[in-house]
Amino acid sequence: MSSGPQGAASSDEAFEGAPSPEFGQEPHEREEAASAESTEENVPHGTNGEQNGDNRPKSAAQQKQESRYERTKRERAAFKQQQEAFRAQQAQFARERAEFEESKKPKRDYSLSDLKKFREDWKKEADEGVPGRAELVVRADQEIAAMEAEERASKQVVELPKRGTKEHRQQWEAAEADLRAADPEFMKSGTRVDTKLREIFAGPNAQAYADHPQGIYAAYDRAKREILEEDVKGLRTENAQLKKELQRLGGLTSIGGGVPGRLGEGGITSTADFARLSSADMRKHLLAASKKSKDTTGWL
User: Which of 207, 213, 210 is nearest to 161 (CA)?
Assistant: First the structure.
C-alpha cells in the first residue's frame, strides 16, 4: 500500500472515477433535477415557500377585528390612566413644593413674644456687663424684625379704593361697561334688570354694594337671581293651573263623565276601567249611559 502524495493521487483518481449523481439519468431528467435545485435555493426557509411565522395559526383575538366600541373603550381606559398618573404627579409636585417652602423657613422653638421677653432679660444683663449678652441683644433684634415681617406678610390685607376716589370710580365704570356688553337690558330704562337694580340700590344693603369698587357685579347677580325666582314662582303657578284644567277636561271626556274627581256610572272613570269590564257589563254600561243622555251625540 502506497502512502504520501502517490496515495493521495490514487484517492483523487478513485473519487474522480466514481459515478456522478446524474449517472444513468436521461438528459431531460438531469435538466428537471437542476431546475428543482435552483428553485429550492431561491425559496425562503419555511414550509411551502412561506416566510417563517406566516404559516402559524392566528389566535381568535387576532382574527377578530376590533370594533369601534372596543377601540373607544380601550382608548378611554388609557386616557383615564394617563389622567390618574398626571394627577399623582401633580400631587407629588405639590407635596415636594410645600416641603421645600417649609424647609426654607427657619426652625424656631420659640414664639415672637418669648423672644421679646428673652431680649429684655439679655438687655438687662448686657447693661450689667455680662459678657456676650450685648451680641445676643443684637441678634434678638434682627430675629424679632424678621418674625414681625413674616407675620405681617401672612396677615396682609388688600386695601380697596374708597368710594368717591378716582380709582373707585374707574373700577366701577369698567364693571358697568362689562355688564352692559354682556346684557343689553343692563342700564336700559324700563327693563326688568334695571327696575330690580333700582330697588336694590334703594334698599338697606345699598351702601355695602356701593362701597366696593366692583359692587355692581354683586348687585347685578342679586337682581338676576330675584328675577329668576319670580319666573320660577310664576311657572309653578301656571303649571298648577294647567294641571287643574287637565283634570277638569279629563273628567269631562271620561267614560262616566261628570265633575272631575267624581266616579262615573258604575265606578267607570276612564277607558281603562271600561276595558276591564266583561262584555255583559260593557253592554249594560252603554245602555245606561245612552238612556241618561239621549239628547247628546257620541257613542256614550
Answer: 213
Contact assessment for residue 275 and residue 267, using Cβ atoms and an 8 Å cutoff: no
Sequence-distant (≥ 6) Cβ neighbours of residue 290 within 8 angstroms: 300
**Has this prediction a pTM greater than 0.90?**
no
Q: How many of the other CB atoms lie within 10 Å of CB of 175?
A: 19
Cell numbers of 163, please? 368710594
Residue 72's pLDDT is what? Answer: 81
Q: Residue holding cell 426654607?
A: 104
- Please say whether the beta carbons of 213 and 172 come within 8 A: yes
Domain boundaries, the chain: 79-105, 112-154, 166-239, 254-290
Are 172 and 216 within 8 A, CB to CB?
Answer: yes
The residue whose grid cell reads 502506497 is 2
Element (H, E) at 299: none
Extract the C-alpha cell encoding 251: 273628567
CA distances from 114 to 117, 120, 150, 156 (A): 5, 10, 16, 23
